[in-house]
């Protein structure tokens, strides 16, 4: 439900926004790629745009370089309906860049240019606290925890949002090459773990954080904390598993021809948050939560069918059309199976 004024709840996303350079050819190294496509990205920004594309209200808080790329990214946020009043520009540092290697299966490897980049230099005193306090959901990752002063800005923003009553959503979005060491990454990622109300990790992140190769419910539940309302583990083409205080289960995803998995997890998170921001009772109703997760899985699947993250994020109508089409196909397959197995008249 929206507010008494009819306005939808605001989802504020905090962290980095950057330029992804995606190779024009899959399955080759960066040096072997004949060219690259310039694609806006950065997990928190992807989530904000995912929410807005689906018809929700979103804002982004972060810092960009006062350069052509930075102003281009701010323009992309505005073009996609994302509130940009939380953006700062740094005159002394550039907007972050990432070169992304696409393997033949659509999975990625990253090489970053951040020495330092503008997003790393966001200070607590630069935060738009009024905007943060207006959030019903405050979403963040872990890259903003790597260095100061951005780490302090992250902690301040999270504290202000929590005090104002926002639901805290955390997707670590592990990028191991950016951390000094795996041990430091685990320590810092887990340092704010018990603050979040919703946590989403991938199967790769689950293995990294628990240092356990066994992907089962017991391993996932080792990450549970008493104040958590929902823990999600995304499993790529196998869908996702969900855990709450009262129930747990899994939801299958939709098979598509994956071209680039960049942004699929962000699309999933954006879809989830957009569906629950105005009715958090969904988190206590397994049937409704499963429906929300099927929608989120559909959005993630659609995002893998195009190169780049933001250009591939679906609209609400595209996601609903995709689900309708999949339902039709499933009905047809069930009917065909019944016809094939039915005894002759």
Written overview of the protein:
With about 350 residues, the protein is of the alpha/beta class. Helix content is about 35%, strand content about 20%. The longest helix has 26 residues, at about 315-340. The chain has a 9-stranded mixed sheet, with helices on both faces. A 4-stranded mixed sheet has the order 3-2-6-7. Residues about 330-345 have low confidence and may be disordered. Helix 1 (about 45-55) crosses helix 8 (about 265-275) and helix 8 runs antiparallel to helix 9. It starts with 9 loop residues before the first strand and ends with a helix.
Descriptive tags:
10 helices, four-stranded mixed sheet, 13 strands, 345 residues, 21% strand, 35% helix, disordered C terminus, alpha/beta, globular, nine-stranded mixed sheet
Please sum up the structure shown.
The chain has 345 residues and is an alpha/beta fold. The protein is 35% helix and 21% strand. Helix 8 packs antiparallel against helix 9 (286-303) and helix 9 (286-303) crosses helix 10.
Write out the strand line-up for the largest beta sheet, numbering strands in chain order: 5-4-1-8-9-10-11-12-13
Helix content: 25-40%
Structural class: alpha/beta
Oligomer: single chain
H and E string: EEEHEHEEEHEHEHEHHEEEHHH
Low-pLDDT stretches: 331-345
Gyration radius, rounded = 20 Å
- Strand portion, in percent? 15-25%
Tell me the total number of β-strands.
13
Largest sheet: 9 strands, mixed
Q: Give the overall shape.
A: globular
Note the gap between the termini.
Answer: 52 Å
Summed over residues and divided by their number, the pLDDT gives a mean of 90
Helix segment tally: 10
Keywords: ATP-binding, Carbohydrate metabolism, Kinase, Nucleotide-binding, Transferase
GO molecular function, one term: ATP binding
Pathway: Glycan biosynthesis; starch biosynthesis
Enzyme class: transferase
